[in-house]
Amino acid sequence: MNHYSVKAYGAESAETDLLPLQIDRRTVTNTDVKIDILYCGVCHSDLHFAKNDWGMTQYPVVPGHEIVGRVVEVGSKVSKHKVDDIVAVGCLVDSCRTCQNCKNDLEQYCPEWVGTYGGYDKHLETNTHGGYSETIVVDEAFVLSVPENLDLAGIAPVLCAGITTWSPLRHWNVGKDSKVAVVGLGGLGHMAIKLANALGAHVTLFSRSKGKIDDAKKLGAHDVVISTDEAAMEQVMGKFDVIIDTVPYVHDLNPYVNTLNTNGTLVVVGYLGPLDPMLVTVPMIMGRKSVAGSLIGGIAETQELLDFCGEHNITSDIEVIKIQDINSAYERMLKSDVKYRFVIDMSSLKS
């Protein structure tokens, strides 16, 4: 297939920093949209993939799945988007489109879903490359519309951090008078607070640090519970309908399960891996409480989120960086030294 070369930043091995690369993009097919990338959010998954922390990375890898850009070319059969539209691309760029999950707008659970990076580009017969690049070509079915009133840099992390928390809030029917708790205040956690608040829920942050109290309340939390304070945890026993756990490393879920009410659910969205210590099932059985997991959302649900953000003027709290600063941003991200998400101004790639 015909292709062209673009500038990008990526890793050539797990041991190397991200450096300038040249990558191939396919020329536009009948159903494709070519996007000039304006902003790309920086996700923990980008770092994990660049460093092969999950043991599945094929190099070179160009991360980035929180993409906002301008349409510069469309295929002859494209009907949803036109040149000069501001659009977005999240974590998915393709799926089988025929399985039950795809038919139910759950492309994120399709066994053959294609990630924006680290997937398989059936056109070029190579790895997909993400948004740390000048342009990207994506099938129109996986391109999203961006509300005109939103800050373009601030909307980028909504494509991952936002939808990762929105999907469980919607699936577990959070709304007016729901009692929602969020574990951890970072990229995911700050979006969970904003979105749950906008849905009408009473929102509580669980944090180990008293230093997070003021920030949490500015973001929309009504209460903050210090999770290391046994008396404070005792006071919220049996309180919450839904808990969104955003912590990205192994930690003890049992204290939080105890704060669920009957039929309540704790949803893990931040950590992939074995639990330690293991779950104690007694409170789950005695109170019909659940521990569940959730990935991102499908395309329809992600568009729903973007529209909701437009209606409520919700964006992420961000720090804009140049692509040349990506390696130091990764180091800072490991230290949680950002409030609350880095976003790359991709015009810096052209300089």
Please provide a written account of the structure.
With 351 residues, the chain is of the alpha/beta class. The protein has helices at residues 44-50, 100-103, 152-155, 161-171, 187-198, 213-219, 230-235, 254-257, 282-287, 299-312, 326-334, and strands at 3-10, 19-26, 32-41, 67-74, 86-89, 92-94, 114-115, 120-121, 126-127, 135-139, 144-145, 179-183, 202-207, 223-226, 240-245, 260-268, 290-293, 318-322, 341-345. The protein is globular. Helix content is 24%, strand content 28%. The mean pLDDT is 96. Strands 3, 4, 5, 10, 11, 18 and 19 form a 7-stranded mixed beta sheet that branches. A 6-stranded parallel beta sheet has the order 14-13-12-15-16-17.
> What general outline do the C-alpha atoms trace?
globular
Order of helices and strands: EEEHEEEHEEEEEHHEHEHEHEHEHEHEHE
- What value does the average pLDDT take? 96
Give me the secondary-structure category. Answer: alpha/beta
Question: Which parts are unreliable, with pLDDT below 50 for 5 consecutive residues or more?
Answer: none
Give the DSSP E fraction (strand runs of 2 or more residues): 25-35%
Helix content: 10-25%
Radius of gyration, taken over Cα atoms and rounded to an integer in Å: 20 Å
Instruction: Report the strand count.
Output: 19
